[in-house]
């Protein structure tokens, strides 16, 4: 028996699969808190990713490595409280699944129980096969993540485009096929050549979501702070800015400071 909180038709992995089959592109954005999640969900985003990019955009770290499982659970549970329709995927943070498959399952169960998330995302291919099998066997939907995998930044050395060489491209295709065979419901491809992403999306039956992977995939994901222009400095070629919230927020705050200093705020109508 289930208890329904609203009549809104919720997005499921089954619906995402149908979207790929009928050629409807999937929209996905990151979210880390309740207020933003309510806006993104009401605006119709299909999938919200509680990304470990929270380590960068929320906590100000240089990489995604420092964020902890407890912190991810805090962000995910805040997002879940703001969502009626979207499917919410939560990143397993660095160090919470690489050790062994039991640890991966333990971390996943904590995320599912303590945050109410709908599925998890893990970075990597064949090397995390056992963990994926274990998580899927517990009935938790798994999203894969290949190409530029930021948790391995110290192995790569840079955030430049991955899989430009044949050997890495071939390994990526094999990993994508393996993730599908294991039962992943979708895969994120990050920062790889458009033609390679196209080949993967055509070869696989499950949805392929791109970030910096060109237009020929089944959906797109962006970090919400980047697409809203809250971060001014981050300007990769793949990013389209849909707003300049940095300027809008800066102007609003400057006006507030000025109004307080000049005693214009609050006025009589704004007082009891
Ligand atoms: O953590 C994140 O924001 C991500 C996206 C870049 C896909 O994994």
* Biggest sheet, spatial arrangement of strands: 1-2-3-4-5-6-7-8
User: Which cofactor or ligand species appear?
Assistant: 3-methyl-2-oxobutanoic acid
Total beta strand runs = 8
Helix and strand content put the structural class at alpha/beta
Binding site for Mg(2+): 52, 91, 123
Pathway: Cofactor biosynthesis; (R)-pantothenate biosynthesis; (R)-pantoate from 3-methyl-2-oxobutanoate: step 1/2
Subunit structure: Homodecamer; pentamer of dimers.
Protein name: 3-methyl-2-oxobutanoate hydroxymethyltransferase
Short description:
The protein has 272 residues and is α/β, with parallel strands linked by helices. The protein contains eleven helices and eight strands.
Task: Describe this structure as you would to a colleague.
- GO terms for molecular function: 3-methyl-2-oxobutanoate hydroxymethyltransferase activity.
- The chain is of the alpha/beta class and 272 residues long.
- It has helices spanning 13-21, 34-42, 54-57, 69-81, 101-115, 129-137, 153-156, 166-182, 194-203, 224-227, 245-261; strands at residues 26-30, 47-50, 87-91, 119-121, 142-147, 186-190, 208-211, 219-222.
- The longest helix is centred in the middle third of the chain and has 17 residues, at 166-182.
- It is globular, with a radius of gyration of 20 Å.
- The structure holds 3-methyl-2-oxobutanoic acid.
């Amino acid at each position: 028996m289930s208890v329904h909180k609203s009549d809104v038709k919720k997005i499921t992995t089954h619906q995402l699969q149908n979207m790929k089959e009928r050629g409807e592109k999937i929209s996905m954005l990151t979210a880390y808190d309740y207020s933003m999640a309510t806006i993104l969900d009401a605006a119709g985003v299909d999938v919200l990713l509680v990304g470990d990019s929270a380590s960068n955009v929320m906590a100000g770290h240089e990489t995604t490595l420092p964020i902890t499982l407890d912190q991810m659970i805090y962000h995910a549970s805040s997002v879940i409280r703001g969502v009626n329709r979207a499917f919410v995927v939560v990143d397993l943070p660095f160090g919470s699944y690489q050790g062994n498959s039991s640890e991966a399952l333990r971390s996943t169960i904590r995320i599912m129980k303590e945050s109410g998330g709908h599925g998890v995302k893990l970075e990597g291919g064949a090397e995390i096969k056992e963990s994926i099998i274990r998580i899927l066997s517990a009935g938790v939907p798994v999203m894969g993540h290949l190409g530029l995998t930021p948790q391995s930044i110290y192995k790569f050395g840079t955030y430049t485009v991955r899989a430009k060489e044949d050997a890495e491209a071939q390994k990526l295709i094999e990993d994508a096929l393996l993730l599908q065979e294991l039962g992943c419901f979708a895969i994120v491809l990050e920062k790889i050549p458009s033609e390679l992403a196209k080949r993967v999306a055509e070869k696989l039956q499950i949805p392929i979501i791109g970030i910096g992977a060109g237009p020929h995939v089944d959906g797109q994901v962006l970090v919400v702070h980047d697409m809203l222009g809250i971060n001014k400095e981050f300007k990769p070629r793949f990013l389209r800015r849909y707003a300049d919230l940095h300027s809008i927020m800066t102007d609003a705050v400057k006006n507030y400071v000025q109004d307080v200093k000049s005693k214009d705020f609050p006025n009589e109508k704004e007082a009891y």
